[in-house]
UniProtKB/TrEMBL annotation:
Pfam families: HXXSHH. This is Tat (Twin-arginine translocation) pathway signal sequence domain protein.
Length: 433
């Protein structure tokens, strides 16, 4: 795969860092058939209160209190224990940087978006719920080492993705033709002359920026509405108040649940309408200061994550917060599972990954990180399973980068490695059917 294929679809100002090249081959099944959705929740977990208890590889397991709200959708879920994030930086920031990259410069959501971009207006859609508010720890989406920031404003995101319509009258058609004339085509002679005067490194930089601008033009020209003729997005009375300067309306803790549900609806709508094949949602961010109002917790999420003794009141609050995020994920899975898509549902053809940036939040480690995967037969997944990879690699836990490989394979992009490869190539054994 050419280097520039990784760069398309985002703004021209991305930093020029070395690009990881992945072993790539066409599968017999058409690329683009599957969809992917990545969901982040902050600050790890208490491993023994999140990971299932029971037999690996079977449906005979129970969910402890942190993950118990997922019981109602367990028929769609595969719970994974024993996945560690290796290499890269430690703690919150390092975990955020590698949870979707495996230490590759480009995160899996961005990579899959570029690979599966044919026929969709947006290669990937990145949504946030307070993800940029008081955030010093970054986004989990990356392009060549540069963060791809999610859009925290659901109304702005909806307008950007669905707000325009093509004009149909004769004069409008003439205007549209003029608008569709590429700026790059208009200055192609100048670009050619400039390129001839540049050295090899500078020519590469010029090519990268030209490709990014070309992709931006394509996105601006693309039909906005995807495959849905009627778009139903109910904001439920939510609106942004112009006088809300800091925090913005969508960053206020009182609106955290409302904004989160709107963003989840928008992700489902974007995937179902063919706006994109890849989407991501960040609930807050690492070192999250968020107080979740409709829980019994009074501490912010990060403060609660430093729970100390597992029987402390702080631990109790952290359990309540983690349960709240699990409930939101259950709602998302239910939405996907009840959204018609062809002869099945949207979940049948979508692989969903739930993740965080830490394993045990109290220890600030990257061991036994809480990963859950959902999807249907269209992406080679079967639910109601628990797979335990602890000690399965010569006494070490398995590498989470193999999960990234499996997700790519599930949507028809058969990479052999993604980022860290110290535990060998290939995906997770037993995950895909």
């Amino acid at each position: 795969m050419k280097r520039r294929s990784f760069l398309k679809g985002l703004a021209a100002g991305a930093a020029l860092a070395p690009i990881g090249i992945h072993t790539f081959a066409r599968s017999a099944r058409a690329a683009g058939e599957g969809r992917a959705l990545f969901v982040y929740i902050p600050d790890g977990c208490i491993p023994d209160r999140w990971h299932p208890r029971g037999s690996s590889g079977s449906s005979t397991f129970t969910l402890p209190e942190m993950s118990a709200p997922l019981e109602r959708v367990r028929q769609h879920l595969t719970f994974l224990d024993g996945l560690d994030m290796y290499a890269g930086g430690p703690t919150h920031e390092g975990g955020c940087a590698k949870v979707l990259t495996g230490t590759d410069p480009t995160s899996l959501d961005v990579f899959l978006g570029q690979t599966l971009r044919e026929g969709v207006p947006h290669p990937s859609v990145h949504l946030g719920v307070g993800a940029n508010f008081e955030n010093g720890s970054g986004s989990f989406s990356r392009l060549m080492g540069t963060e791809v920031k999610p859009d925290d404003d659901p109304l702005n995101a909806f307008s950007r993705l669905f707000g325009g319509r093509e004009m149909t009258d004769t004069s409008a058609e003439e205007l549209r033709i003029r608008r569709r004339r590429s700026v790059l085509d208009a200055i192609s002679g100048d670009l050619t002359a400039l390129r001839a005067r540049l050295g090899a490194v500078e020519r590469t930089k010029l090519d990268v920026h030209t490709e990014s601008l070309r992709e931006l033009e394509r996105r601006l020209m693309a039909p906005v509405g995807g495959s849905c003729s009627d778009v139903a997005f109910n904001a439920g009375g939510y609106r942004n108040v112009e006088t809300d300067y800091y925090p913005k309306t969508y960053h206020k803790e009182d609106n955290f649940l409302t904004v989160g549900r709107l963003q989840q609806d928008l992700a489902v709508l974007s995937l179902g309408c063919g706006i994109t094949r890849v989407a991501s949602i960040m609930w807050s961010h690492p070192v999250s200061p968020t107080h979740v109002r409709d829980t019994t917790a009074t501490l912010g999420n990060h403060d609660a994550s430093h729970y100390g003794n597992a029987d402390s009141d702080t631990a109790r609050q952290f359990v309540a917060l983690k349960r709240w995020f699990a409930e939101r994920f259950a709602e998302l899975i239910e939405k996907l599972a009840t959204t018609p898509d062809g002869e099945g549902t949207l979940l049948d053809s979508t692989v969903v990954m739930l993740c965080s940036e830490l394993g045990d939040s109290n220890a600030h480690d990257h061991k036994r990180v809480p990963f859950v995967v959902a999807g249907g037969a269209g992406v080679r997944l079967r639910g109601n399973r628990f797979i335990d990879y602890r000690g399965g690699h010569g006494g070490e836990n398995e590498a989470h980068s193999k999960l990234l490989v499996s997700i790519a394979q599930a949507v028809g992009v058969p990479v052999d490695t993604y980022g860290y490869s110290g535990h060998g190539s290939g995906g997770l054994e037993g995950l895909l059917i």
